[in-house]
Structure prediction request, 101 residues.
Amino acid sequence: MLNGEVAGTCALVKTDDNPLTFELSKMAVSPKAQGKKLGYLLGNTLIEKAKELNAEKLYLVTNSILVPAIKLYEKLGFMHTSVSNAEYDRADVQMEMILNK
Prediction:
């Protein structure tokens, strides 16, 4: 929330038990709130929550046209991997993060 309005949203979706894997999903920041580093804060919060849940891996899929989002994910520590079984038609980028136990 920012000034009483929703500024951003995000989700972790459990996708596999072995290794415990979550998808970083539905991350978005309102146009009014962009440029305030809220995406970075949301991303870090998701990473910390995944660690609390004992996740071993996080991944995400996105589209190459979303350059600012990809740069954010790289800054958070996600690494590019090959796209495998993307559930979204427009997904042409996949990234993952292996979490330390």
Observations:
- The beta strands are 8-17, 20-29, 57-62, 79-81, 93-98.
- The longest strand covers residues 8-17.
- The CA atoms of residues 13 and 70 lie 19 Å apart.
- Helices lie at 38-52, 67-76.
